[in-house]
Amino acid sequence: MKSPGDVTFVVHRALGGGGMADVFLATMKAGGEETKVALKRMRPTLVADPSYRVHFEREARIGASLRHPNVVALHRFGEDAQGPWLALELVDGVPAARLMAARPGHSGVLPLAVALGVLADVVEGLDCAHRQGIVHRDLSPDNVLVGFDGVAKLSDFGIARAEEATRLTTTGTVRGKVAYLAPELFDGAPSSSATDRYALGVLAFVLLGGVPPFGQVNEAELIKRILSVEPPRLDELRPEVPAEVAEWVASALAKAPAQRPQGLEGLRDALAKHVGSEDARHAAVRAWVEPQRSQLGVPSLEVPSEAPSAQTVEEPASPAPPGGRRRAWLGLAPVVLLAAGALAWWGWPVAPPPAPVVVPARVEAPPPAVAAAEVDAGVAEPPEEPVAQARPAVEHPAPPTGRTGSLWIRVRPWAQVFLDGKDLGQTPLAPIKLAPGKHTVLLVNEKLRVRKSYPVRVFAGRQAELKVAFDEGP
What we know:
single chain, 474 residues, alpha+beta, Phosphorylase Kinase, domain 1, Transferase(Phosphotransferase), domain 1, seven-stranded antiparallel sheet, four-stranded mixed sheet, 25% helix, 24% strand
C-alpha cells in the first residue's frame, strides 16, 4: 500500500479492531526510515458511509494536532483505494480496563499507587487536549492505554471535535459510553470541557474504586441514577484514597456543570502530593504492570527481520478507480502544527499507476491555538420551549443493523410512555429497538394533565429521536 510521499507498510499481523476499524502491527517505511506502527484501517464495509468517514477523518485531524507524551501519537494518515488509514504510535501495553479485569480476586481494584499514577498521566493528556480546545467525549478505561514502561496514554479521539463545529452535526446525537455521560447531555446540551471533567470524575472513581459510581445496573436505571442520585464518596468506598483526590472527584460528579471544577489544576496538584515526580510515578506503575504481561497474555511486538512471509506482507499500491478522485492525507511535522496553531490540511487527487500525479491543494490553517474554541462531537440544540409540543423525530445515521432501527424518547420533565399500545414505563428510557415503519407513541403525565400522541417513523439501521417538553405551569 503506497500513499503520496512513497509511504509503504509491511503488515505483520492483526492487533485487534472495533466497530469502525481494524488495527494491524506494521512497519512503516517513509523517507528512508522504518518505524513500527499500529496501522488503523477503516473497515471496507464502512468506507462508503459518510458518517463513519467523518469520525475517521476527525480522528486524523485532531490526532495530528496533539503532541504530548500522554496522548497516543499520530505519525501519518492517508487514503488509498482501500480506504482511509492512520499510522499510530505503537504502545506496548494494554487498556486500563483490561488491567482491572485481570484482577478478579481483588474486585478489579488496582493498587493505589498504580491507579493514582495512571490517573495523573490521563490528567496531563486531557489537559493538553483542553488547552487546544479539544473535548475528548469518550473518556473511559478502554481508551487509556497503560504501557509496560509505566506510561499511560489517552487514545481514541475518533469522536472528539471542535466546539465551533458542534452545530454542524446531527441534532441530538449523544456520543460516548452512557456511564461516563454528564447529566446535561441527556437534555440536549453540547459536550464541553465540563462534560469531559465529569467523565474524568467517573474514570477516576472506576480506577481508584474498582466500580462505577452508580453501580452495575441496566442502562435505563443507570440514566435515572445519573440524573437524580448522588454517588457515594470515593474515600468512603476506599478509605486510603487521598481526601483531596476524593474531594475533586465528588465535585466533578456534580449534576450542574457550574458546580464542577473549572479546570484540572486541582486534581493535578492533589495527585502530585501522592505520586511524586513524573519519573517516580512511571517507575511505580512499571514495577507493577510489567510483571503482568505473561498473565495478561500480551504477545511481543517484535517483528520478523527476515523477508516477508504469509504473515508479513508488504502491501502494494492500490490503484484508485479509473476516473475517480480520492482524498489523500499526509501526516504533518510537529513544527508545522505548532506554527499553524492546530492542523494544516492538504488534499490531492491520486491518478492510476504507474505514478501518482500530485496536485497541491489549498492549505487552510485554523485560528491560533490561543483563540481556539472547544471542540465537541455533539450538537448543541437551542433551549427547549416549555410547551406541550413535540419536536420532529430526528433520524441519526448509524451502521447497518439488519432489519431493526431504534427510537430514543426524551421527555421533560417526564412521562409514562406507551408505544403502539404497550406500556414501556416512565422516562428516562434507553433507546428502544424497533422494526422499521410507522409507530405511535403516547405520552401521559397525569400530574400536568397531559396526554398526547405522536406518530414516528423508524428506518432500518438508524436511530430516530422524539423529543418533547411539557409546560409545567398550571
